[in-house]
Amino acid sequence: MKSISHFRSHFFLFLLLMLHVVFPANSAQVKFKGTLQTNPPCVVSGDNDPITINFGDVGITQIDGTRYAQTFTLNILCDVSMGSGVTLFFGYDGMMAGFDERALQTSRNGLGIMLYRSNGDIVEPNNANHTEILSGGVPAAVTLTAVPVKNPDPNLVLLEGPFTAIGTVEIRYP
User: Fold this and answer.
1) How many Cβ atoms from other residues are within 10 Å of residue 109's Cβ?
2) Which residue from 46, 62, 70, 104 has the fewest beta carbons nearer than 10 Å?
3) Are 165 and 105 in contact (CB under 8 A)?
């Protein structure tokens, strides 16, 4: 035999559930439809493949963040299925220089590469917030400038020798 308190608790729970039931006065059916599509492919290329910037001989004492600048172009072509006037995001991934997070670290301690857009904005490593409005099937060019920069710490001595740095350019869809 069930106790009265057990009966009351079930009855109370039933009343609570009934209070949360809402009866609509009017209703309308809504249909949602669309087409899922993978991101159309874009090809990023440069004047050479892989894109290689050769600074040549760089004088350690003459590195000032403007000398030795090398301008290059990224050519971007997206599939026609992308449509027109689409905002895409581009950036590059790579190791940030320990002395300046806006620069790409090179194989030489205390030496980095700063990357600038043609409008003077810095393109930081690991930051794909730079936008380009592109249309599928229409080639686009993004002009960039790479410049060697050095750690401003006067106690750090840059050592003579070759250096390299690697970054990966990416185009991202919203």
Assistant:
1) 15
2) 62
3) yes
Distance CA 30, CA 146 (A): 53
Residue 69 CA to residue 61 CA, distance in Å, equals 15
Residue 16 banded pLDDT, cuts 50, 70, 90: very low
Q: DSSP strand E in 18-167: where?
A: 42-45, 70-78, 86-93, 96-97, 100-105, 111-117, 130-134, 140-150
3-class secondary structure, 62: helix
Distance CA 136, CA 82 (A): 5
Closest CA to 167 of 66, 62, 59, 72: 72
Cα–Cα dist 174/40, whole Å = 12
Tokens of 166: 């690697």
Please list, in sequence order, all residues whose beta carbon lies within 8 angstroms of the beta carbon of residue 148, skipping any fewer than 6 positions away: 55, 58, 63, 67, 68, 106, 111, 112, 113, 114
Q: pLDDT tens across 20-59, in order?
A: 555 556 777 787 776 666 666 888 888 777 889 999 999 9
**Token reading at 15:** 């009343």
Enclosing H/E stretch for 169: strand 168-172
C-alpha span between 126 and 123 (Å, rounded): 9
**CATH hierarchy code of domain 42-172:** 2.60.40.1090
